[in-house]
TrEMBL record:
InterPro entries named among the record's database cross-references: MMPL_dom, Mycobact_MmpL, SSD
Cell compartments where the protein resides: Cell membrane
Record protein name field: MMPL family transporter
Gene Ontology CC terms: plasma membrane
Keyword Membrane attached: yes
Pfam families associated with the record: MMPL
Source organism phylogeny: Bacteria, Pseudomonadati, Bacteroidota, Cytophagia, Cytophagales
Membrane topology: Multi-pass membrane protein
Stretches that traverse the bilayer: 210-229, 236-260, 266-287, 308-330, 336-362, 394-413, 597-616, 623-643, 649-670, 691-715, 721-750
Amino acid sequence: MPLRRLAYLTLFLLGLLTALSMFSVAQLRFNYNFNDFYPAGDPDLDYYQGYTRRFGNDNDYLLLGVEAPTGKTVFDPAFLTQVDSLTQLARRQRNVRHVTSPTTLANPVVEGLGFFNLPYLHPTEPGRRADDSTLIYRTPGLVGNVFSPDARAVALVLQLTPDLEKPPGDSLFATLRGGMARLGLPEERMHFAGRIVAQSVFVDRLKWELVVFMSLSVLLVTGLLWLTFRNWWGVVLPLIVVLGAIFWGLGIMAACGVSIDLMTALLPLMLFVVGMSDTIHIISRYVSELGYGASKKDALRVTIKESGFGSGLSALTTSLGFFTLMTSTIRPIHNFGLFTGIAVLLAFVLSFTLLPAMLVLLGRPQLRTPRRQGHSWDGVLGRLFRMVLLRRRLIFTVSGLVLVGAIGLASRVRINSSLLDDLSKNDPVRLDFAFFERQFAGVRPFELELKPVPGHDIYDLAVLRQTERIESYLHHTYGLRFAASPVTLVKSVRKALHGGGLAEYRLPADPRELGPLRRKLQLFRKKPEFSALVLPDGSAGRLTGRMADVGSIRADALNAALRTFLHTSIDSTVLRTRLTGSSNLIDKNNENLTLNMIQGMAIDVAMVTLIVLALFKSVRMTVVVLIPNLLPIIIVAGVMGLAGVNMKVSTSIIFTIAFGIAVDDTIHFISKLRLTLSKEPDIFRAVRHTYLLAGKAVITTSLILVGGFSTLLFSKFDGTFYVGLLIGLTLLFGVVAELTLLPLLILYFYKRPKVGLPQAPNLVADTGRS
């Protein structure tokens, strides 16, 4: 089949596949499911899911904080009228199951055969304001939960439909904000916190940032391609290839039913900058051959022959860098690694099918400065190679010092995360969450399941006393600011039966006093506030609460101390407990981060080692290749330690991705060196020729990669910001090592029999020869 006809057929088939991919991409949806970040397959996750079926989800709530006007307290009648109107509005919403509000709270009292709910607040009776405030601030469970300690703010706690998704969540937000505006409550005095807040904000920002990053990357890469090739086809062709790979990758993701989340949103940008590598190597080699006087057909044949092997290996190592993320138990990271790895391989396929087809159909390009004796890049790279040889001792010395310093600083990196890690400290959402930590109990949920041993139920006095002891420890030692448990129910009912006096808010003194209380409790067992804390048959209970978001390091220490307390101070023949909850699962992710990162890096290093061994049959050469690629990783780890950047879910992917991408240029270099060595017996001349041949593509691809990742610096997500910054730095250090350390290490350690390394003067003099 004639070459042009084959090219047309290739374009037709690839165009058809791209159209199908674009149809699938149109079905993609954005999603931020908090539950996706739990460690998949973990026994604690299975236990937590059963726990939520028994007692409900611990993060299906919305906190709505309202500050009183300047100079007034929360007991101001006009302010309480606004709060009550907002409460009634929230109660009428379809996805709101229950509202705890200061204007609806009541002190239950049982007198004779009557049951009364006495309100804590009497806004229409100014003379009772002092008594109301005194009672409220003496009643357990109100201050820090509904009223702030300084009486300057109140909080409404909205219990929502389980696992409320974004559209109804956004509708609820819009209704509440509209109601606040009608009531004259300014936005600066309103604060929201809860899972659906983060869900709404994250998804909206994902959509916006995806558009911004891709636009910036296209502009940046287009500019760099133009500066490199100075031809329209040198810009347009790589863009077509990479955009096609992006559509293919997203199309496969959509066909598998995977949504775009915080991690997979990086796939288009990641592929856009990474996928450029093969196209640039192909076009650079093609232009070089044309510049040396080859015909278009011969130039394309040589390019495919010499670039195909190296590009295939580099695509393999880069995709492996992403595939190793599949070892993560966190589903978004797993999906990101899987589909980005697949997309990298698709980019390689398109680079060696679509790009050659377009080059065949295009006429011979007019080169800016065609010359038979080489290009201007040859002179630049020749001088750089000469300088590297002259400064080789300095390069080795500086590299060693930097390595030692980076290892020392890297030891300072800590694995730590909080609930809103990916939002900057000045983000309005994070400031709202900080408001609840400052004025109320906090936003970090706490969950402990209470399981009486056989022969007891949750209302047995011995069980209640053990539970009360746990509550006391959590309040005074652990740092829990608000707690509710079966003990809360028993104390509340006892207080109601004894006239509502605060002195009666305590456990019964003996089993005889407990008997009547148990009968009363059975009457309320189906009420939401009871069923949320105790199973109807009394076989298990729940101790739930909220606290400040102290971070995973502090939380691990607190939980370790709590487990010790439960083991040594709680009678296990009466009550058994188990720590659970969404926060506990998020913290557990940190235990897996280091293991997953080490596994990913080990797989990457092992695969690169096997590739180099297969190419050169030399252990020395393997070490030579690994050193300039591991050194930038260690340096960036040192930068993290120096800057105080913690290892967390979003930053844990940096090292495996960076290594997989950084080794790409090394693979191209050594594959070209292998081809050169088959023709050139002298190792020095082979290295120099390879340096001149591959240098332009190495520098260009590195600039595009660094520039592409630098667009992530505009992200409002801290995790995305650090991914861009740290991977960009890794690649920047990597290209420096590639152009300095790698050739020196090859010259010093990869020696053929009876071929010694010439003395320095000869090396330097030799660089002046063509």
